[in-house]
Amino acid sequence: MEFGLDLVEVSPTAKPPVCKIMDYGRFKYEQTKKQHEAKKKQATFQLKEIKVRPKTGEHDLQTKLGHIRKFLERKDKVKVTVMFRGREIALSDKGRALLEQIATEVEQTAVVEQLPKFEGRTMIMILAPK
What are the boundaries of each domain within the chain? Predict the structure, then answer.
């Protein structure tokens, strides 16, 4: 009698290896379905970047803070970059204060993942949603 079934090795790493008699095509289909469902449930996020300058005005800063809050609500991480041009590099303390002000403004919704640090002519801080 022919049933159209195959001998399938289900768990090759087990001692002894586990085999089942089943329809191999159906088995492969169910495996891909499980992988697809697992991929759907993974938490995904993007890294968004907000750029400011040491002399950024108060209203512009409030607008940028609104964008940061919106990104954090969507569960995205935010990289806040202070760019220094020319002689502005002397205003590094003002840039650090600006990043600390941003961190305190969004402390209800975000946690500082990476403290402000210099990379060349830019100062970077990374915020993650709580």
Answer: 6-40, 47-129
